[in-house]
Every structure is written in C-alpha cells, then in structure tokens.
Amino acid sequence: MKNKYGIDIWGDDNFFIEDGVVKVDYSCSPSLISIVKDIRKQGFKGPLLLRFPHITKKQIKTLFNAFNASMKEYDYKGKFNAVFPLKVNQLPNFIHPLVSAGKKYGYGLEAGSKAELIIAMTYNNLGSPITVNGFKDKEMIHLCFIAKSMGHDITVIIEGLNELEMIVEVLKETNMEAPNVGLRVRLHSGGSGVWAKSGGIDSKFGLTSTEILEAFELMQDNNLEDLLTMIHFHIGSAMNTIKPLKKALRESGHIYAELKNLGAKKLSSINIGGGLSVEYSAYEQSRFYSLNEFASDVVFTLKEIARQKGVEEPNIFTESGRFISAASTVLIAPVLELFSAEYELSHLKLKGVNPPLIQELHDLFRDMTKKKAYEFMHDSIDHLESLLTLFDLGYIDLQDRSNAEILTHQIIKKAISLLQVDDYEELRKFDKNIQEKYLLNFSLFQSLPDYWGINQEFPIMPITHLDKKPTRSASLWDITCDSDGEIPFDMQKPLYLHDVNLNKEDYFLGFFNVGAYQDTLGMKHNLFSHPTEVNVVFKDDEVILEKLLESQKVIDILDDIDYDTEEIQSILSKRLPLETYEILKKYLNDNSYLKTIWSYYDDE
Ligand SMILES: *Cc1c(COP(=O)(O)O)cnc(C)c1O
C-alpha cells in the first residue's frame, strides 16, 4: 500500500497526490487542504462534505460516450438514454448541477416515491425522460398523469397488475392523457455483490412471466397496448461481475421480443436499471469489468436477440446511480485526538522505588535498539498485561499503573520509529496490540451509514502528510456515544496513519466515494446532523465555494424531532439569569459537532 492509500485503484484520476497533499485533478488543481482551510476560516470547524459537480458531469459524459461509442461500433439502431435514480442522492446541491450538466445529453430522472416524483416534475429538463419505479397508489399514478400533462416524457414502470388497473381507473376518471407504461420483469437470474437481492425470482419487485402476459392482455382489453413502451429490470446495486447482467439481458431481451411479436407495436425500449459499480477498495480491485465492457455487452447482447427474433433493436435506458454520484463527494473529518496522546512521557512519575516489572519497562525503553525493537515491544506488552493483573489484585497502585501504561506506549512508539516500518507485513503481527485510536469529529451514523449498516468499505486517506510514512495501525472512532461508531483496525485491510502531535499540527482524514446513498440514509443518532457542505466549482481556473450549507443548529435539530422549541427556550430563559441565557442562546444556534479550541491552520 505504501503512502498512496490505493488511490490508483479507486481514484479514477479524480484526485492525485503531490507535495504530500491530495489535490483535485481538475482546473487549477487545488489541494483538498486548501479548500478545507478556506471553509474553516469562515468558522466551520466540524466535519465537511465537499461536493465536486465537475466529477458528476464527467461521469454523465463518460456514461453517454461509452454507450454511444458501443452503439456506433456495432452499428446499433436503437438510441441510448439514461436517468438518474433520485433515491441515490436527492439533495438539491447535488441534483441542480446534475440536471444542468445532463441537459445536452437529454439525461433524465428516476423517481421511486411521491416526493421524488415532485422533484423530477419540477426540475427535470423538459424532453429528458422520467421513469417512475417502486410501489404506487392511485395518487402516485395520478401524479404521473399530471407530469405527463406538463409535457414530460414520463414512463410509469408497473410493479404489479393492480398498478395497471389504477392507470385504467385514473384514465377513465380524469380523461387526461396517460403516461407511457413500462413493465418491470421479475428475472429468474439474480445479481451479484452485496445488493444482489433486488434481482432474482424471490425479489421484492417485478412481474412474473404469467403476470406479464396478463398485463399485456389487460392493456389490449382496454385498447391501451400502445402505451407500452418499455421493459425494465434492475438486478441490484454494485454488481462486481458482469455475468449476471448478461443473463438478465438475455432474459429481458427475449421478453421484449416476444411482446413485440405479440403485437406490442410501441414497445421500443429496454431499461437495464442500475447496478453499475464503482471501485471502493483501497487494497485490490473488486469490480471486474470496465464501463466499456459493460456498454458493449449490453449493446451486443440486445442486438443479437433482436436479430434472432427479427424485431427492431430496442432503445437502451440505464438508471445508474452509484456510478454517477459516488465519486463526486468527499467527507473530511478533522482528527480531534490520538488516544496515545495521553501517554506522553512528561506525565511519567516514577517513584524512588518502583515495582520490578515497571523498572524493567523503564529499562526496555531506555535500552531499546533497532535490532531489539520487536522483542522489546513484545516484552513490554506482556509486562503491561501482568501489571494490570497486579493492579486488579491490589499489589500495585494507580500511579504504578499509570507509569506502566505510559512506558508501554512509549516503548511501542520508539520501536515503530526505530524500525521505520519498511516492512508492514512484519509489523502487522503486532497490530492487534499497538494500534493507535484516532478520534474523529464526525458521526459514522450520519456520514457513513453504509459502513455501519452493511460494512461497506470506503477509501480513507489523510489529506496531508502524504510525503511521510504512516507508522500507526489505526482504529477510527467517531464522536457519538455509541461503540458501533468505530472503524476498527482490520488486519486484512490495514489502515496506517501518521503519528501526529495535534498540539502542533492539524490532521484531517478524507473519506472518498461517499456521494451515493450516504446523504439521505444518514441518521441523526445522538442528534448529530449532516456535516457542513459546500459545492466546489471552478470558474476561469479559480476555486469557488458555492451553496455553503451549514450543519444544522441544535435548536433546529430539536425542532425536527418535534420538540416545541419555543417552550424549550421559554423554560430555559426563565430558569437562567439573563446573561447566562444569552450565552446559552448562542449554543442553541450552533451545531452539535465539536470545536477544536486551537487550530494550526486557522492561525496562519
Ligand atoms: C436503486 C435503483 C437504481 C440505482 O442503482 P445503482 O446501483 O445505484 O446504479 C436504479 N434503478 C432502480 C429501479 C433502483 O431501485
């Protein structure tokens, strides 16, 4: 791994390391630390979420270019279309730039709930497609009719026959023009990867082959067969291999062709859903296909089926969300404390006469040489074990115990610096005992919910110090009072960080690829709200920080969970002297994250 934290594996040329810092590989190539400094200067000292709309734009362009190139290569007659699934990131500061970057491609939006549909109806570029998935009631179907009446090119994807019946009802009741209809098929082939369960015969969604035939009959009975334009499937998020996609394509391709041959004249598109993966691993590649392979497999497979069944080649729709959004957002968490900082040598208070094991620890510390480093480190850890037992039995006192802990930590530190850890493999043997714990000013529940919920790995890297060798095997703690708010050291995927003195220097960790799903999945555990966020945009080679959105105020968080904030303020103001209440009011109007009192960069 060395110092690069796998950036060559997951970085996709969005960032690079130069002069020991992470820089944005775009325009004037600012360093992340310079952006962080700028924002902190304005008083925002907690965690930061940096959004880079140019990366979203690049992903949209890359997706369209890959498919259009494949279509050209295979002389494919259908057209490529794509929509962004809003569930992956609905926030306005992400969506507005996405919609404007997508305009020239006709890039549309996908909605899976009423609220998402309202976003799509309001902001989607007219002429770009809207698709609507998920379970629907009559109101939601009616909303689709209303969107259609606004001039949107909208397709309702039917998840069950009852939804089709609702369309017939709304049509009769309102006399409005109906939206297009798509059928979501329940594939017998499943996906791969962690989220594979959205595909397959047991999946929550889609119509069985019997239901598809029934649906088409129902449409014919109501003279609505011309509404049917799309076949849809979604085999689950983050496919790590392409094989299940090929199976799903063959399956849905044949369904498309069969329906065409049954008389579905306007059926013209296959929507392959999402699932296009991004690389999250900092250790070894975990996605085993390129976008170009993905595109060319889709185009080639559908072309073959169309030829075999003698039907026209379908337009291709994708609903890739993760691929479009993940890389665009970086979470920056300030390190508040290194656990071992409490074990500074200056706190050591040896007695005139010490217990023999403590004396021995002291000698190990004093006499350590590079050659003896491993051995002494090991010995010290054994000694500490014994001393802690002696403490529990009442044979040594609290001062002795404190001295033992300080000496052991100092021995470990000295050993690591003597060894200069060229050989991380060797050091790993000791990792269990000598990890450093880094306390970070962020909430894992709020900012990395997929780590908490499904152990999703995210690339992590300090944004400075990259010209120095990281020497501490690291566990990360967040500031929630929940012991699950931790990213423990993992022997298989070891994270090494720098041994920093936070009284002299700042240290920030970047969590990358957090733009997909994390924003609205994040939860307010312990009442920590979203980090302060900003869009980092570039104009004439200059960095401009746009749409700064401060982390929520304490009083607003309380309001969100339905406290009567008037009452809170009135009770507190009655019980406190005016001057104290004035101070308290300031705290109520500030966010929950911790503030470091002093910061190296802020003084510059
Ligand atoms: C979630 C979802 C997507 C997006 O999947 P990604 O893996 O993020 O690309 C696309 N289509 C449907 C129907 C979905 O439910």
Automatic annotation (TrEMBL):
Residues 66-326 form the Orn/DAP/Arg decarboxylase 2 N-terminal domain. Its cofactor is Mg(2+); pyridoxal 5'-phosphate. It is an enzyme of class 4 (lyase). It comes from the Bacteria. GO terms for molecular function: arginine decarboxylase activity; metal ion binding. GO terms for biological process: L-arginine catabolic process; putrescine biosynthetic process from arginine; spermidine biosynthetic process. Pfam families: Arg_decarb_HB (PF17810), Orn_Arg_deC_N (PF02784). Catalyzes the biosynthesis of agmatine from arginine. NCBIfam families: PRK05354.1, speA. Belongs to the Orn/Lys/Arg decarboxylase class-II family. SpeA subfamily. This is Arginine decarboxylase. It comes from Aliarcobacter cibarius.
